[in-house]
Design brief:
Blueprint: H1 6-12, H2 14-39, H3 44-48, H4 55-67, H5 74-90, H6 92-102, H7 107-119, H8 123-137, H9 140-152, H10 156-168, H11 174-184, H12 188-197, H13 205-215, H14 219-231, H15 236-246, H16 254-266, H17 270-281, H18 287-305, H19 310-322, H20 326-338, H21 342-354
InterPro entries: Sel1-like, Sel1_AlgK, TPR-like_helical_dom_sf, TPR_rpt
Protein name: Tetratricopeptide domain protein
Pfam families: Sel1, TPR_8
Amino acid sequence: MIIKKKELMKFILFCGIFFSMCFYNFHLHLKRYKENEEKNEQKDIQKTKKININGDVMKKIEEELAKINDNMNENDLTTMLSIAKMNYDKNPEIGIMYFEKLAKYKPEALRYLADYYYGIKDYPNYEKWEKLAIEKTQNPDEIYNFALYFDEKQNYGEAKKYYLMAVEKNQKSAKHNLALLYGKMGEYDKATKLFQELGFKDGNGKYYTGLYYKTKKNYKKSEAIFNELIKEGNPDGYFGLYLLYEAKGGLKNKEKSFQFLKKGAEMGEVKSAYTLGLHYSSLEGHNNTYKYYHELAVKYYLIAANKGHKSSMFNLGLAYEVLENKENAMKWYKKASEVGDKEALKELKRLEREK
């Protein structure tokens, strides 16, 4: 029998879709820094050593640097920026001298300074120059990058500040990470609001925060959050525990995971009920056993279908066909078709022709 599994995959693989997307964006936007570190790997030795420059060369550098002031025209400033870049490629510390003088006039110099100090792990100076770069350019991706930096360091106050700035500028990934941040900060109502705006409506902010910690392999924290949901009377906690104990990389206790699934379904939780329906629909057996499994599938599909779950409606039609109850099969195919299931409409027409 063909069983619809697309909705189940959305539930079970949520972490692999939503959070992978977030973490992909996280690493994507930090890629510039990673590449910068690799690029400067060979230069790090130079950076940690004091530069030996003879007096004449240093004097020439100081003379050039002195020319960089408010009186310098735009063409000369651009020339100096090119000189700074050439020096940076050969000897970063000399290039940095130029960039520091040019920072007031050329925003690109700020970018070099921030990248340089990040690359050598001088984070106070990185923060100083990154803040100036953001003030000057208001670049949404740079703002988002800075939020990620603080998020990684668990400086949630600063991370929140810059995520909010990035959201205001419609940076495409900022709202996802801000929702996760609110969850990490325990501000679950705010997290819920953002998750719903993003189209994630299978649970509240606390539920998605539990999934986040599962993905990060912080199983203790994930389990604690799901148990909090259960204490609050929210059956999403049971489905979260099911995922935690069932999935690869989780706590791996299938007996426990199945019990959590049943408890969630008994409380009317749609994801749990639908998943149990799929489980029983997929079991093989002899005539009486096979029939019994499909009766159980019907029991759980009904829980989800009566709450408007489209795929459960369709699968009820299939299960009732196995049980040779065409009247109920047609009833549920019709209900599924009325909420937009095209496959259900095809099955309904087939049964009508067979009458």
